[in-house]
Amino acid sequence: MATLPQLIEEDIRRLDETLREFVAQADATVALLIDKGGFVLTHQGAAGELDLTTIGALSSGAYLASQTIAGLVNEKDFNHTSQQGEHASLFTMNVDEHCLLVVIFPSQTGLGIVKYYAAGAVRRLALQLAVARDRDPGGGFDLSAMNVTDPQELFRKKAVGPTGGKK
């Protein structure tokens, strides 16, 4: 079953714009939009030497583990997780049923300011993802099912039918 809508250039531009504004408002280092399987869809900020692929995968796992804990304590869910370090902290928040916002920020920034601005960013990200989903309700794909050693199937051109429509 498809979990992500097919994102076009305009979708990515708007998602990036939201992340860029959020990073500036929250004084964050970097913000990532990931699917719940941990795949990075896009990011903004000063990633530098950070391994965003691994951070995305581990953040997804930590968030999903917290959802299991929520069930064990009779909570419907926990909508965010956070880890605080001496120099850097990480905040992960649910965007929609398929995506998460992951934020890396200096510990001195404080979690409260990040949470405050994240709420608005998450609404905008979810709205753009809904626009993309509504464009082709039956379309989309599941990144976890993709063969990462041979992604050709994902990037192949669709055949054009005799009437000019895609098959």
Task: Outline the structure in words.
A 5-stranded antiparallel beta sheet has the order 2-1-5-4-3, with helices on both faces. The protein has helices spanning 9-26, 52-72, 111-135, 152-155, and strands spanning 30-35, 40-45, 80-84, 88-94, 99-106. β1 and β2 form a beta hairpin. It starts with 8 loop residues before the first helix and ends in a 12-residue tail after the last helix. The protein has 167 residues and is of the alpha+beta class. The chain has a single domain, classed as Beta-Lactamase (2-Layer Sandwich). The mean pLDDT is 85. 41% of the residues lie in helices and 19% in strands. α1 (9-26) packs antiparallel against α3.
Summarize the structure.
41% of the residues lie in helices and 19% in strands. With 167 residues, the protein is of the alpha+beta class.
